[in-house]
Design brief:
Two copies of one chain form a homodimer.
Chain A lengths: L8 E7 L2 E7 L12 H5 L4 H4 L4 E4 L3 E4 L5 E5 L7 E10 L2 E14 L4 E6 L2 E12 L5 E8 L4 E5 L5 E4 L2 E4 L12 H7 L1 H4 L4 E8 L4 E2 L6 E2 L6 E7 L2 E4 L11 E6 L7 E4 L2 E10 L7 E4 L2 E6 L2 E2 L16 E4 L2 E7 L2 E3 L6 E6 L1 E9 L2 E7 L16 E5 L6 E12 L4 E6 L12 E4 L5 E5 L2 E3 L6 E3 L5 E4 L2 E3 L5 E3 L8 E2 L5 E4 L2 E3 L11 E3 L14 E7 L2 E4 L5 E12 L2 E4 L13 E11 L6 E4 L1
Parallel strand pairs in A: 2-3, 3-7, 4-7, 6-8, 7-9, 8-20, 9-21, 20-22, 21-23, 21-24, 22-25, 23-26, 24-27, 25-28, 26-35, 27-36, 28-37, 35-38, 36-39, 37-40, 38-42, 39-43, 40-44, 42-45, 43-46, 44-47, 45-47, 46-48, 47-49, 49-50
Antiparallel strand pairs in A: 1-2, 5-6, 10-11, 10-19, 11-18, 12-13, 13-17, 14-15, 14-16, 14-19, 17-18, 28-41, 29-30, 29-34, 30-33, 31-32, 31-34, 32-33
Chain lengths: 599, 599
């Protein structure tokens, strides 16, 4: 087993609250397999938390293995819950500076890099996060027809065919130990690990982005697909009706999001500078119930020097029920398998209401399984009651008592009399969620799905970014029936951005669009998004669609430049630039000929 | 959603520490679907624990659903760990009598009936435990050949074919609700539940026991098997080389053991009287680190009035690192998918040793994944060090400090100097484990595998039982390389039992046998089991094999009656009654002609 201590030398220099970590090995990347977990495991314990204020690393590669890591059952919103191994598990640390000095952290297997709970004033800077074995797999497309698809997997993506099904695995163990089974079990852990996959998506090998108009091809709930080994790492995938181009890459997307790079819960003032996340097994940075999170000069991008086309298997960043300020500045978010960011609250569904000892009680349930365990309702909190179909807020009440039944259901006693309109199936959210957002000077694109999902009532500024997203660059979403994401902007400025050939994929109807989950029959009744100004941007479009809005009050579009492009094959030449439905106070400068208004 | 409260009437009469539970419904079993979880959920909370001393039920059927149940992450030895929904979750309750008055508790889905932690003086009596949907599935064998097997599943075993793979599911929801997806999700939970399977085993439909000489046929790690729907609930299973008899039942065994009926941890004096466990999703009664557990007049048997051939999918009972007395008296253990009982300790494996600040430190690891989280090493405990190959104890030491690294690894600082013989790969166990065992007047058989696995150093009496097991009726096992079960009897009396046509299956070499995992090359060096007296029993045998012993000191076989039977086809007529290898102090009365001694 690979363990720190004897083969590798690691220095921990602790003085005056500073801890310097250095690791020396023989320099060859392939041999730097000592386990750096031992020194990190206790770093976040409460006693030490008061002492260590600065952690610095000597440059180099540090390898982390799950065997001796911390462990904790975690609910991480929009990722998957579970009992997780964790390298840096920090509870209630504050005022810590963590400087990697350019070090690269290589993680092996199912291991969470950073988990912070109730931490304050933490800065991470100057390091790279990568994985030995990715949670997704990539195969070069060799042949494709109505019945099957042939791909070749490089050595980077180990797999087996088990009972005619394709199963991705960890790397075969290098050990030749012939000891008793038990010791072999320990050593061969990686080889026996299974990396289930959820779907297939084609990437353009030349452009290194999701292929033009490529769809997700679902794979069964079993995390695998029927397949036949053809030899020489060539595999025939029996999935009917796949359309793809020989020479492109077929990406087998990870089934689960167990391993975000940074999981932040109930933290305050967390800053990331110059952090490069080349891979992880979930989102890059997920903040839940946090205040003030900033990323500056960070990159989510495929591992350099490798042939990977995908960076991370989920959203680059994601913020749920956060407050204060969220800043994404001068960052690169590319080639991840979901959006660059999504900033929203959470709706729970009312599943029961009754009166107990003269007090109104409701049972609410988290419906989306990646929101289970997201306990946000606290005594004293003001709750909004939202109609499930129209998404209109029709009642407000205050929380008196909260009883957590289990990860799905919470029983809430209310301060005041419930409105008689409150009905089973409607949604409830924290009325106070309104972080201020600044997204500036970032490049966002080449990923699966959309760019940024903006759903905060706080002042939101999107400035100086370049978007090259296959779906909508900017989406205002939210719904109380499917994803249960609380949304609705109140003050959104989109200015000085370049929308560079967006919508070359299938995830959206325009560069900037609203798509709150208001039932079509109810859209006239609601103005879910408000006060949007879009100005001084450049829209370089091969496709006519620029805006697609409904149920909005206040939409100004002015001083924007529209450039026509021939970089992709247009799909919607008959469509107008602007589709506006059930909106008030709309002022779209110029382009009246290209405006479609249904009221 | 089914919920208690309005449709069903439930009375809770609490007075003088007594709680009476009555539930009234319209009497039809199919409609008794109100959820009885609400009243049970808070019963085990600490405040109530001091008040409630007697819980009685009116006769009838009580249905329990997971939606509103308690939740806890649990490690249950020899079952599967996980975040579990639990009906009766009792922490530190004492002196409680729980009388079902013949009530039947029907559980729905993934829901643990009883979980007791650190409870004392508890009696359960007079109720039945059953499940709406079993965790295994049974299909009637219609055809079989080298390539495939055709079976028909009754309505009791819902399934789907997904991408050519057989997937067992929960029952389709009866709701016709057309509301938003979220509400449907809630209602259709069962339908979307997957019941993964691990293997196939044939049962004799006439004899209602595992089929003669039937083997386990493994199914892949995916929990499913390639299959084709033939219509009319007939399915073709593509598993080569299966041998089976048309008309018999093929049982698709549950993959996991997530849901024992009773999970007892660190409890004392727990008594079961007249409890019938017709089904559950793990072991019937599992006790870990408990003291004094007794079962009287309990039954593990297939649900009456249904066509099920299997009772529960794992061992009827199982006791790990227990102390005091374990009594199984006048019980029926039949048709379960594993042994009737297994009473043993646990070995951990030494994976590292070193000296830290002049003190000897070892890292030990739980290897068997169903033992993960079994934390038993405490300061002050005397540890035995056991050679992994010979299973000889060669060193004893005392625990000074314990640091739990994670569910697998524990770091132990020792009081005294470690022997130089201590080496990586050897095993460590609690030296004090030695419960007294009485197993009397039980019927044990028709199940998969063996009867009782006796591995305690305490006085062990097996008296007045009837065994009709497909494997060994009594097995003395233990090993430090595969299952990591600490064993080795010191005083075992086997008397007045009937061994009725045992060994009709493949799991054993004789009616009574030792099979400690001592490497064949080391068996001469160890006397792992000691002082065994087998007297006044009747061995009704169709097969010659009665005893198979090695590495034993003290084996007396006297006054036993041997009757020849023609009930099954003999497989081992050339074998002797007695095989004895590397044993001392052996006294086998009569039958010298049938004794094989290798020394």
């Amino acid at each position: 087993m690979k363990k720190i201590g004897f083969l590798c030398m690691m220095c921990l220099l602790a003085a005056c609250g500073e801890q310097r970590v250095a690791i020396y090995h023989n320099g060859k990347a392939d041999d730097s397999t000592c386990d750096a977990v031992d020194f990190s495991r206790d770093m976040g314990k409460k006693g030490k938390a008061k002492i260590i204020k600065k952690i610095t690393f000597d440059p180099g590669q540090y390898d982390f293995y799950p065997d001796f890591a911390n462990e904790k059952y975690m609910f991480v919103s929009n990722n998957d819950e579970g009992l997780k191994r964790i390298v840096f598990l920090w509870d209630e640390l504050s005022d810590v500076e963590f400087d990697g000095n350019g070090a690269t952290f290589i993680f092996h297997g199912f291991l969470n890099p950073f988990v912070l709970n109730r931490c304050k004033n933490i800065t991470f800077r100057n390091f790279n996060i990568d994985w030995k074995r990715t949670f997704h797999s990539e195969g070069k497309i060799l042949d494709v027809n109505e019945e099957y698809l042939d791909v070749r997997f490089s050595e980077e993506y180990p797999y087996k065919i088990i009972q005619g099904m394709l199963v991705f695995t960890g790397f075969p163990s290098k050990t030749t130990d012939k000891g008793p089974r038990a010791i072999q079990t320990t050593l061969n852990r990686e080889e026996n690990e299974i990396y289930p996959v959820r779907g297939m998506l084609e990437f353009d090998a030349g452009k290194r982005e999701t292929a033009f108009q490529a769809w997700d091809y679902g794979i069964s709930a079993l995390g695998t697909v029927p397949a036949l080994a053809l030899g020489d790492r060539k595999v025939r995938i029996f999935r009917k009706g796949v359309k793809a181009t020989v020479g492109n890459m077929m990406v087998f997307g990870a089934c689960n999001r167990n391993i975000p790079a940074f999981s932040l819960s109930d933290c305050e003032n967390i800053r990331f500078e110059n952090i490069h996340i080349y891979h992880c097994g979930g989102m890059g940075v997920i903040g839940q119930r946090c205040r003030d999170i900033e990323l500056h000069h960070c990159k989510i991008t495929p591992s350099p020097g490798k042939d990977r086309i995908v960076s991370i298997p989920a959203d680059a960043t994601h913020f749920v029920n956060c407050s204060g300020r969220i800043v994404l500045n001068e960052c690169l978010f590319e080639n991840q398998m979901d959006d660059a960011t999504n900033i929203h609250g959470i709706y729970v569904q009312i599943i029961d209401k009754r009166i107990v000892s003269d007090q109104d009680v409701i049972d609410v349930r988290l419906i989306h399984n990646q929101q289970f365990g997201f306990d946000f309702i606290k005594p004293g909190m003001e709750l909004e009651f939202v109609d499930g179909m129209s998404m209109n807020t029709y009642h407000v009440n205050k929380v008196k008592n909260v009883q957590r039944i289990n990860k799905e259901i919470t029983r809430v006693t209310l301060e005041s009399k419930l409105s008689e309109d409150v009905k089973i199936g409607d949604a409830v959210c924290d009325a106070s969620i309104a972080p201020e957002i600044i997204i500036s000077n970032c490049f966002i694109g080449k990923n699966r799905a959309r760019g940024i999902l903006l759903n905060s009532r706080g002042k939101t500024i999107v400035e100086g970014n370049t978007f090259h997203t296959p779906g909508a660059a900017i989406l205002l979403e939210g719904d109380a029936r499917y994803w249960f994401e609380q949304a609705g902007v109140r003050d959104l400025q989109i200015r000085n951005n370049v929308f560079d050939n967006c919508n070359y994929g299938v995830w959206g109807w325009a560069c900037i669009e609203t798509r709150p989950g208001i039932d079509a029959s109810k859209r006239a009744e609601n103005r879910y998004n408000k006060n949007i100004v879009i100005e001084n941007n450049t829209f370089k479009i091969f496709d006519n669609r620029i805006l697609n809005f409904y149920s909005t009050d206040g939409l100004i579009f002015r001083n924007n430049k529209i450039e026509l492009s021939t970089d992709y094959l247009p799909q919607n030449q008959d469509k107008p630039h602007f589709v506006v439905e059930h909106c008030d106070n709309v002022d779209i400068e110029g382009f009246h000929e290209n405006r479609e208004v249904k009221q």
